[in-house]
Each structure stands twice: as C-alpha cells, then as structure tokens.
Write a structure and sequence with these properties.
Structural class of chain B: alpha+beta
Number of strands of chain A: 49
Largest interface: A-B, 62 and 56 residues
Helix content of chain A: 10-25%
Number of strands of chain B: 11
Shape of chain A: elongated
Oligomer: heterodimer
Strand order of the largest sheet of chain B: 1-2-8-11-10-9
CATH architecture of one domain in chain A: 3-Layer(bba) Sandwich
Distance between the termini of chain B: 49 Å
CATH topology of one domain in chain A: FAD/NAD(P)-binding domain
Largest sheet of chain A: 7 strands, mixed
CATH superfamily of one domain in chain A: FAD/NAD(P)-binding domain
Helix content of chain B: 10-25%
CATH architecture of the largest domain in chain B: 2-Layer Sandwich
Number of helices of chain A: 22
Distance between the termini of chain A: 99 Å
CATH topology of the largest domain in chain B: Gyrase A, domain 2
CATH superfamily of the largest domain in chain B: Probable tRNA modification gtpase trme, domain 1
Largest sheet of chain B: 6 strands, antiparallel
Number of helices of chain B: 5
Chain lengths: ~950, ~190
C-alpha cells in the first residue's frame, strides 16, 4: 500500500526522481522520505557500524537513519536527511555506507561480528603494535565507518551572508509560533518568523486537530496568509535557526535553492543570516522519542508521530496493517488517525503492561512479537510500527548559553530552564506544554510579554483548540530478550552498550557519550539522548536529572561549510588593496607580492630577463648609479595635530621629538610598554601643531590603534587629534644620485640642497598640483618621497618615469628596496619581530633617558641590557661564491648543531649586486664586539653550513655621504 | 605647468563608472571633497559657533546633515565635512581660516572611494552587505560599518539614495562586493 487520500501534496503535478538509479514519481509537497514511502520503499540506508538495513524513523530534521547522498558531480552532497529533502524534477539520491548495494551490503558482516564491536571496542583492540595505529588500523576503521563521500570537486554554487534586524524573532512556525507571530505582527512589531520546513504550520500540518473550529492545517495556512500581508512581518521558510549567540544575535541558514536542481543565475544556494533581535521566542516544538526493544531498528519501525504525519500530511500509508506501541495518549491519536484512514491498527499500550519484545523482517518489517500483560505472546504481521515513548521539548537553542535544562516529571522530559538565554522565552511544546490550546495561548501571552518589555502593547487572542493531557507513564526500554535494542540508531548504540559503559565506569553523561558515541554525528542524539540517559539512570538507580543532562552547542542541524564561508573563497577570499601605481605597473608586466591586503610591485621584469635576480640586480644598480622610483604609498600615514602633538610624540617615540623644527623630518623608534620595539618610521613636522607620522606597511593599523589608545585612555588631557591619511596620498620614493635633477623637472619650487636640505619637508606643487615633499632615504641614496593626492597617483608615476627617461631612471619593487635597505643596515620586518629591543638592533642610544616615553623604563630591565644579548650584525660569506640562507643559525667552528651552542640567527639575506656576493643581517650574541670573527651559519632544514665573517651591518656608504649629497 | 597631472577615479578610469543591476544603480562619485574636522581640547563651543556661522553642520552621533556644507559624525567632537570638489579641491585651505586653530582639519578627499547607490529596496539590498539596519535608518542616518572586511561609512541621503564611503585602495574589491550583492537579489 502507498498513497492514500488527503494530505498537502499537489497531485496535479508529477515529479520524477531517482533513488539508487531507480526512477520514481512524487508530487510537489513531498519530501524524499514521503515519496519513497509512497513508492513502497522502506529501506533507505545502512547503519553506521553494523551496516544494519535502515528505513525512515522520523518526519523531520531529527532523522537519524534515512541519510542519503544527493545529486552528482560537483553538486554531490553527502549525509542529507531524506525527511527534509524536497523532491524536485530530476532529483538524484543515493544511499550511502553500503557496498556493493543497499540490499546486499558486504559490510553487514559487521552485524554478525557485533560482539567484537561493542562500545569502546577501538579503545581496546588495535592496541599493538603501536606503530600500526596511524598507518594501518585507523585508515581501515575510518574506511569502514565512513558515511557519505565527497566529490572533491569545487562547489559550483555561491553562498551569501546577510544581516537582519527585528523586535521579535520567533523560531518555529507551529501553533505556538504562529500564535506569537500573529499577536506581535498585529501589534505592529517587527517580527521574523523562521521555520526549517518549506511549509509553515508545524505539527498542525500533520494532525487532524481543529483550531478555532477549522482544520488545524487550514488555520495555519490562513494565519500565514494574514502574516504575509503585514509589512512588519518577515516569513522565512526553509530557514533553520542554528544557534543563539551573545546580545540577541541568532544565526540562521536559509536554503534558498536546495529545493531546485540548481540555483537560479546569480542566486545563492543558501544564505547564512545573522539576526539581531531585541527579543526571541523559541517555539521549536518537541521531538518524539522511541521505546527501545529487541530489533527495534528495522525499516518500517518509526516514531508514532511520524507514522501519523506521513498519513495526514503526505497521504502515505507505510503499510495496510500497522501497529502502535505507546506509553502516552498521543500514541492513541496515531491509532485513531490511521484507523480513520482505513488501516488495520494494532495497539500495544505500555501503560496496560503490553510490550513489543521483538520484530522480524530482514530488509523491512514483516512482523512484531507482542507480550501482553497477561504474559501471552503473539506475533502480528505488520508493515509498520509506530513507537511513542513520549516527547522531548526541542530545547536545543535554549541551552546554547549552557543553561541546564530541568526535569519535568509530568511529561518525563527535560524542559528549558527559565532565563536560559537573556531575552528568549520558550513556548508550547518546546516548553513542555503539549496541547494545541497550550501552544496557542502560550505563544500569544509570551509575545505580549516580550513586546511589553519593548514598550509595545499587544493583545493575546488565541483561538480555541484541544487541551488534552499527555497521560504518560514512563517506559524506556523493554526488559526482555538477549538481543540488541537500539538507543541511538545512527551510531548503533544499544542498551547493551550503555550497560557496558556503566560496567566499565563510564557513568558520567559526558563519558557515556564519548565511550559509546551516543548522540554524536549528524542528528546529535535528537531522538536518542534522553533514552540513553534513562537507561543509565535505571542501571545506576539514580533519577534521570541526577544522572545528568545534555546541552547543545550550535549548530542545531548540520551546516554546509560553504554557507559558513560565504562568498569568501578563491580570489574573493579577501579584499585587495591596490597602490596608485597599480594600473601603470600592470601595464608594465610587474610581478606583485601580497603584503597584507596590499598588492605591491615586487619587481618589474624587462625583456630578456629570465630570472627575478636579473631584474632586481638591475633595479638596484640603476638606482645607485642614477635614479630609482618606488611606490611607497603602503607605508602608514597618520596625521597628528593639536597643541600637545609634539609632547604626544615625545611620549610615544623613544627618541627626542620635542626639538623637531617645523619643516623637518626625524626618524622615530616606537617601543611597546614592555620595552621591545614596536615600529619605526619617520615623522614630519608640517606646521606648528601639525605632524605626519609614517609607519611600516605591516604596522599601519596596529600603530594607529596604539596611538588612539594612548590618546583616549592614557592621556585624555592632551590636546591631540589623529586620523589616518594612508589612502589619501600617493607617495613615491625617488632615490639615487640623479634624484634631485629628476624631481626638479616636475616640482615647481627650488629643491636644491640649500633650499631643501637632508631631512627637510614641506608643501610644494607638482606642475600646479598640491604635493608634499620629504627628503628622507631608506635606500641610503640621495632620496625624496613625494606625495600627491591619490587621484593623481597614476599621472605622477607616469610623469616620474617620463622625467627619468633622460637619466635612465628605473622603477624598482620591494625586492630591490629590500636589497638596498640590507646594504644600508636598516631594520625591517624581519628584525622588528616583536622580541627585539632597540639595543638588540644597535639603536640602544636612541632610547632617550632624559624624558619618559612608552617602554623606556622596561627597556632598561636587567635581562634587556645584558652585554651578551643579541646585537645586530652584518654577515658575509668568507667565500663570496657561497650563498647565505635567512633563518640559518650561528655556530662556532666545530660546535655541534644543537640549541645549547646557538649563537643567534640570520634575519635577512640578500644578494648585493654592488658587492657581488650574498650579504645578511643577523642577531648575534654580543655581536657588537665580534666584528671580524669567523663563524658558521648553519641551516639544518636547508642543509647548508657556510663559513661567515661578522662585519658592520652598514655594507654600503657607512658614513652616509650619499644621502646628504 | 606644462602637463597638469590628470586624475583617475578610484576604479582607475578617467570618468566615474556607473552600473545598473536590476533595481540597483551603483555610481562612483569622485566629485566630493572631504576633510575631517576635530575640535581641539577645550575649544568645542568655539568650533560649534564658528561652524554655525560658516554653514558647516555638526550633526550628532549616527547622523549626517547638509546645510551649505555636508557633514557626518565620525566620533566625539569629530566630523567629516563634504563640499563640491570642483570648488573645494583644496578643502583644508578653505576650512582652516574658518576654524583658525580651534580645530584640527585634515584632507580626506582621496582616502575614500564614494559610491552613490540608488535602489527601490535599499534595506533588501544592504541586508546582504552589512549589519546596518537600513529599514530603521531615516534619511540623514550615517554610520560606520564593515562590508566584505572593509571599514565603510554609510550615509542615507534619502529613501532611495545611499552614499557609501570605502577605503580607496580597495575600491575594486568593494565594487565587486556591491555588484555581486545586487545580482544576488535580482
């Protein structure tokens, strides 16, 4: 038997889909599970460990068994729940975790070997030889245990992220959620109503109950229509709220295109929403739980509420003859509804002392064995069995902030603790109130209360509905038989496993979970956790709340990595920053290097150059011979103004700044509070109370943040204002003997040495355009940095190149810049490593003791000033033909390469075309007194061992005559 | 002044680029000069008075205003002042005489790329971009936010027009994010 009358499917349309290569028909409104059941397919998967044949157990996202793979090729997706997959035309689904086929699975041998695979078996076996674990045992176990498979192709779809704001977020659109939404929506509050289902209404869609005199499903549909007409209400179907975070922030995944063969052009497949709400209502309903008995995992055995849902909502009878095993009145509702559909129904009511003690049917349920209260056993042929051991409030989200649920004896279940999450209230079945009446009234009254908190007035006006009690008598598992009774079918955890865990001392609920795997994997124990606890409680003679509770972390249901990543993948992983010369450099075929988000020119190859070294050597030699141009826009620029700006600089820089004259630039060294060097750069005094600080590229943001901290927190009494101007100015360095001649062609003012001496700065014009000029040098050459408003940056690089043509000037990149600074012995990122002091860098004398500055006191600590500490040195190979390796460590000749003999390390290494050999900077213990010494520079990773000589770090023009020229 | 330097827009073109995707139009706007204005310590009242007489609005937190000049709030006693680029290219030279030494003024014109965005449903568009609650932002609302890892300012000029200021060096990345989001809501 399959389709029966009724249900919320559109029988006027037929959809074709495939499962394991076989074609079937379904209808709009069907899930993969309902459509397969309608086609008499009960077997949908194999269990995790024993490869037992499994069918659908639930009708919602809690499904532990019917886990399938969807689609093919790059869109192949493993581990989806057939119960929430919407059928569409052309849907392809495959069973997983079986070989060679679902009906004949060779791995089912595990089931015969089950005595060897009890809880914790892998902690006890595979113990020796130890070396076998990683290479042999673990791969075998992982292969055997795997669920779905990955295509290993790139996901072709896009995922969006988004942000929503509301007064009231309502999670779940069943009777309680709809009632809350109507109440709040009618009052004009900004409401978001989210439900993971594609149809709102929750259990009302699966019931024959009436609300306000109408069929429950019709009332739900009518309510949704009214809500849709309210502009202040946003209805979000196919949207799972996956977690509650701090300060009223909830996260939700909207499956925009999962119900389509592929997303519409430009549309994302899913959207990860961050919802900012003032109040929230959890109306997520309840999840039914089974009663464990021997062989309770056969396809056809499901939760009683699910069996009813398939009949009422989807018009599917799983069999003509069915049975219901229940310990509460809700189970009786299943009996009544199925009988009304014309099915033969056998009732086994645990409250009367009746029990199901076994089942039969290899690939699907054929019969059950019942033991009546009088001791008589009978075998009844059925194709389906609905089991109801009660309902667990779906409190997952409410425990996200570690609020421990509390036990409610009335329903023998955990309910959310009050105030589990600030601003969140739980209503209806999620709060343990199971009748429709309770759901409707609670939803309304809690919405009124939530809105009252926000100063909004609303009126609770819930329609009439049934208010029947559950009448539950706890029954957890059937104490009969020697076979296995499943507690957690997804992880193949049985009552025996719980017993074994207890026997071996894994009694705490956290140990139980880890030892048996109860509650792990895709369903996270939504149906099995409380049952597992109950079994343990009974074994230990304690109550269930004494035994423990489980709380949940986000996400509520599995979330695709794609949704978490959003658009940030591939070349869109992060934004980039382009320098003002980027367009020109791209035209020249420049090689770019990523420096943070920046793309900087690394070098500019010319025709005929086959290695990067040829380009870099040329750039260096040409700069030193004539002139070189480099884009230095990426250096941080901070505008510092105020009557106390000079005093402020004196405090943040270790060296003196009070004496800096207007129109002058000074090199500054900035320490952290602990005395280590934070950053270095130059600061120019552009006016009486106006300074421009430059920072290194890497530290532009950290230094700005540091200065803001100093200004706002340390010295709010100082008159200082800060703002970043890094992006506002395009800045180029022009260096080399012909730098002045080159620049003078463009600059409207006299920049002769007399008019614009070394370390001068000022506002100038370039062919009429406003500009700033700084006579500073990183390369050691006569050099200037010239800045124009960024929009003129492209024109400026072109003008510089054109003006430099007669001098054979060159544009150089960061590699050449690096070579020249090492030749000059200037420190950069490799030396500014956060663990080095000014003394280490040979800049100890810069730390003024005549004033207080950040880091000054702590830079004088004993350990920081030890004479045998690291000092910056220059290093060159004794044999000029040999190359140095950055990162290599210094060892005395003949010393063993062990940490105890380590004398320091090479921080920066370049090839100096000027000297014709490799040179380096390094930190060497007592390095300042070891010039002329010969050591070894050893790099065990690179396998190099080079004899080196310690020299001055100033390889080039040590007296600095060129830059003053 | 033989060859005056020719400016490029932040997207690297001689003229501003405009893209229309569905009901969203994204137009680069290089025609506004910007300067930050910060009161010097203890000179706050003086700055307010000088600003009032010069037609420079000084809006409160989260707000933007337009009088003679436009302005939006950046932080305590700190604003961004807007003026037409054609007449105020050297904007600090214009503002400094107004405020003398009572305020610190810094040119910010080319620190930012400005996109003017029109859309029939601005909230529906911006909810894919940032956590700014556009639906509750009346014209005149202005805030700092993050779009695609980039710190930006949003100024709601009217029900259908928003100005977005982002870091100029990342103009291409920001533009890409804006266009992608517009396509996603088609």
């Amino acid at each position: 038997m399959s389709r029966i009358s009724g249900g919320q499917i559109d029988r006027s349309k037929t959809l074709r889909f495939q499962f394991d290569g076989v074609s079937y028909n379904g209808h709009p409104g069907d899930t993969l599970a309902s459509a397969l059941l309608a086609n008499n397919v009960r077997l949908m998967g194999r269990s995790f460990k024993y490869h037992r044949p499994r069918g659908v157990m639930a009708a919602g996202s809690e499904e532990p068994n019917a886990i399938v793979e969807l689609r093919s090729g790059a869109r192949q997706e493993p581990n989806t729940r057939a119960t929430v997959v919407e059928v569409f035309d052309g849907l392809q689904a495959q069973s997983q975790n079986r070989w060679p086929s679902l009906k004949f699975d060779a791995m089912a041998i595990n089931d015969r070997l089950s005595p060897f695979f009890a809880a914790g078996f892998y902690y006890k076996t595979f113990m020796w030889p130890a070396a076998f674990w990683e290479k042999i045992y673990e791969p075998i176990i992982r292969r055997a245990a795997g669920l779905g498979s990955l295509s290993k192709q790139d996901d072709p779809d896009a995922y969006d992220k988004g942000f929503l704001h509301c007064d009231l977020l309502i999670i779940g659109a069943g009777p309680a959620g709809l009632s809350a939404a109507l109440t709040a929506g009618r009052a004009g509050a900004r409401v978001i109503l989210a439900d993971e289902d594609f149809r709102m209404g929750g259990r009302l869609n699966a019931e024959t109950l009436e609300v306000g005199g109408a069929a429950g499903a019709d009332w739900a549909a009518q309510s949704v229509l009214e809500l849709a007409s309210l502009p202040n209400v946003r209805l979000m179907t196919r949207t799972t709220v996956i977690g509650a975070f701090d300060h009223g922030i909830y996260s939700a995944v909207e499956r925009v295109s999962d119900h389509l063969a592929q997303p519409l052009p430009g549309k994302p497949r899913q959207i990860l929403w961050r919802i900012y709400t003032k109040r929230a209502i959890l109306a997520a309903g309840a999840i039914e739980r089974p009663i464990a008995f021997e062989n309770n995992d056969r396809p056809g055995i499901m939760l009683a509420g699910a069996l009813r849902a398939y009949a009422n909502r989807w018009g599917v009878a799983v069999g003509e003859s069915v049975a219901v095993f229940t310990n509460n009145d809700d189970g009786l509702r299943t009996v009544a509804d199925l009988k009304a559909k014309g099915l033969n129904v056998t009732l086994i009511d645990a409250r009367q002392g009746d029990e199901v003690i076994d089942s039969a049917g290899r690939l699907g349920l054929k019969s059950i064995t019942i033991r009546r209260s009088n001791g008589r056993t009978e075998t009844v042929a059925v194709q389906a069995l609905g089991v109801s051991g009660g309902w667990n409030p779906n409190l997952n989200i409410a425990s996200n902030h570690r609020g421990r649920p509390v036990w409610d004896d009335q329903i023998a279940a955990f309910i959310p603790a009050p105030e589990s999450i600030a601003g969140l209230s739980c209503v209806g079945a999620a709060a343990g109130a199971f009748s429709t009446h309770a759901a409707l009234t609670m939803g309304a009254t809690h919405a009124v209360a939530a809105l009252a908190d926000l100063g909004l007035t609303a009126h609770a006006d819930a329609p009439t509905a049934e208010d029947a009690p559950l009448n539950l008598t706890p029954a957890w598992y059937v104490h009969s038989g020697k076979g296995r009774a499943w507690v957690d079918p997804q992880n193949d955890v049985t009552v025996k496993d719980v017993k074994l865990a207890k026997q071996e001392g894994f009694i705490s609920v956290e140990h139980l979970k880890r030892y048996t795997t109860l509650g792990m994997a895709t369903d996270q124990g939504k149906t099995g956790n409380v049952l597992g606890l109950a079994v343990m409680a009974e074994l230990t003679g304690k109550s269930i709340p004494e035994t423990g509770t489980t709380i949940y972390r986000p996400p509520y249901t599995p979330v695709a990595m794609g949704a978490l990543g959003g658009r940030a993948r591939g070349e869109d992983f992060k934004p980039t920053r382009q320098t003002p010369s980027h367009k020109w450099a791209t035209e020249q075929g420049a090689i770019f290097v990523e420096v943070g988000y920046w793309l900087r020119t690394q070098w500019l190859p010319r025709k005929g150059e086959t290695t990067w070294r040829q380009s870099v050597d040329r750039e260096v030699l040409q700069t030193r011979r004539s002139a070189g141009i480099c884009d230095v826009t990426t250096l941080g620029k901070i505008d510092i103004q105020g009557t106390d700006a000079g005093l402020f600089l004196d405090r943040v820089y270790a060296n003196n700044f009070a004496s800096l004259a207007v129109g002058k630039v000074r090199y500054g060294l900035m320490l952290r509070e602990d005395g280590m060097v934070m950053d270095d750069g130059t600061t120019a005094r552009m006016g009486q109370n106006e300074y421009v600080m430059t920072t290194t590229t890497a530290n532009a943001v950290p230094v700005f943040r540091h200065l803001e901290y100093c200004r706002q927190v340390l010295w709010p009494d100082l008159d200082v204002q800060l703002i970043s101007t890094t992006e506002a100015w395009a800045q180029y360095s022009v260096a080399g003997p012909n730098a002045r001649k080159l620049l003078q062609k463009l600059v409207d003012q006299d920049i002769s040495d007399a008019a614009f001496p070394y370390m001068a700065c000022g506002n100038i014009t370039v062919q009429g355009t406003r500009a700033r000029l700084f006579r500073i040098s990183f390369s050691g050459e006569l050099a200037y940095e010239i800045a124009v408003p960024t929009r003129y940056g492209d024109a400026m690089i072109r003008a510089l190149v054109e003006a430099g043509r007669e001098f054979d000037a060159v544009v150089y990149g960061t590699e050449a810049l690096g070579v020249m600074r090492v030749e000059k012995g200037h420190v950069a990122g490799n030396e500014l490593n956060g663990q080095s002091s000014a003394l280490n860098m040979g800049l100890g004398k810069m730390v003024s003791k005549k004033k207080d500055s950040i880091g000054m006191v702590l830079s004088q600590r004993i350990g920081m000033t030890a004479p045998d500490g690291y000092r910056l040195v220059g290093v060159k190979p004794v044999d000029p033909a040999q190359s140095l390796t950055a990162g290599a460590h210094f060892l005395a000749k003949g010393a063993e390469a062990v940490a105890a003999n380590d004398g320091g390390w090479l921080t920066s290494v370049v090839y100096s075309p000027h000297l014709g050999h490799s040179i380096g900077l390094g930190y060497l213990k007592s390095g300042d007194s070891r010039k002329g010494e010969r050591l070894r520079s050893v790099n065990l990773l690179a396998g190099t061992d080079v004899e080196v000589e310690i020299v001055s770090p100033h390889f080039f023009d040590p007296e600095g005559e060129r830059l003053r020229g | 002044m033989a060859n005056p330097l020719k400016p490029l827009t932040a997207l690297g073109n001689p003229t501003a680029q405009s893209d229309t995707i569905g009901a969203v139009t994204i137009t680069e706007n290089p025609d506004t000069a910007l300067a930050s204005l910060a009161s010097r310590l203890g000179r706050e009242a003086e700055v307010a008075s000088l600003a009032a007489s010069a037609g420079v609005p000084l809006p409160g937190p989260g707000r933007a205003e337009t009088a003679g000049y436009g302005a939006f709030w950046l932080g305590p006693e700190q604003w961004m002042i807007e003026a037409p680029f054609a007449t105020h290219e050297d904007i600090t030279a214009v503002l400094k005489p107004i405020f003398t030494d009572a305020a610190s003024i810094t040119e910010q014109t080319d620190a930012w790329v400005r996109f003017d965005i029109t859309a029939s449903d601005l909230p529906g568009y911006f909810e894919r971009l940032c956590n700014f609650d556009m639906a509750r932002a009346t014209p005149g609302a202005a805030t700092r936010t993050v779009i695609d890892h980039l710190g930006c300012y949003i100024i709601r000029r009217s029900l259908t027009l928003v100005s977005l200021l982002g870091p100029r060096s990342s103009a291409h990345s920001l533009h890409h994010a804006l266009v992608t989001a517009a396509r996603a809501i088609l």
